[in-house]
Automatic annotation (TrEMBL):
InterPro entries, A to Z: AlgH-like (IPR003774)
Species annotation: Croceicoccus ponticola
One Pfam family of this chain: DUF179
One GO CC term on file: cytosol
The protein's name in its UniProt record: UPF0301 protein EKN06_08140
Alphabetized HAMAP family for the sequence: UPF0301
Lineage, opening ranks: Bacteria, Pseudomonadati, Pseudomonadota, Alphaproteobacteria, Sphingomonadales
Homology family: Belongs to the UPF0301 (AlgH) family.
Length: 186
């Protein structure tokens, strides 16, 4: 893996005091990190007032056997665009391999498969994404805005959304209550 792809398959955690309220306690699995930029989908906050069945109805997909569940706030870019973070047991032409994060799909086909009972075994839906231009995320990493944690499917699928930031830090062996919001230089 080249240095430019180091963050693919990892989970970004916003550092305390980052300074951008859009990313307060953000938990963002990264699916693309290359020279041209980076792309991830937030899973640490919910979209208020919208459910999975609402999204299906908006797309004229009958919910079928799909449970109704929350929809995550994936990020500030294209907030109406949907992404399904899911286990690697389902894929189509839109699917990105997420390594330890499972997979990510953005087609309506995955929603139809979930509704029909033939989709991935584990999944969650997010609207919007977080994106960085060439060198932007690398710069933010150097300014101590983000921490790159190991990618763990259990954080995505077994941890409630409101506990993911703390649980990811704890999985890294860090007590997040001891983190400070400022760094200095010597």
């Amino acid at each position: 893996m080249s240095e430019a792809q180091y963050l693919t398959g990892r989970i970004l955690l916003a550092m305390p005091g980052m300074g951008d309220p859009n990313f307060d306690h953000a938990v963002i699995p990264i699916y693309v990190h290359e020279d041209a930029g980076a792309f991830g989908v937030g899973i640490g906050a919910l979209r208020e007032g919208i459910s999975f069945h609402d999204v299906l109805h908006e797309l004229d997909i009958e919910p079928g056997v799909a449970p109704d569940c929350e929809v995550h706030h994936g990020g500030p870019v294209e907030p109406g665009r949907g992404f399904v973070l899911h286990s690697a047991d389902w894929r189509d032409e839109s699917t990105l391999d997420g390594g330890p994060l499972g997979a990510l799909s953005s087609s309506a086909a995955v929603l139809r498969a979930i509704a029909g009972g033939t989709g991935p075994g584990r999944w969650l839906l997010a609207l919007g994404y977080a994106g960085w231009g060439e060198g932007q995320l690398d710069e933010e990493m150097h300014r101590h805005g983000w921490y790159a944690a190991d990618g763990r499917e259990a954080i995505l699928f077994d941890t409630p959304w409101h506990a993911r930031w703390t649980a990811t830090w704890q999985a890294e062996g860090v007590d997040p209550s001891l983190l400070v919001g400022q760094t200095g230089t010597a």
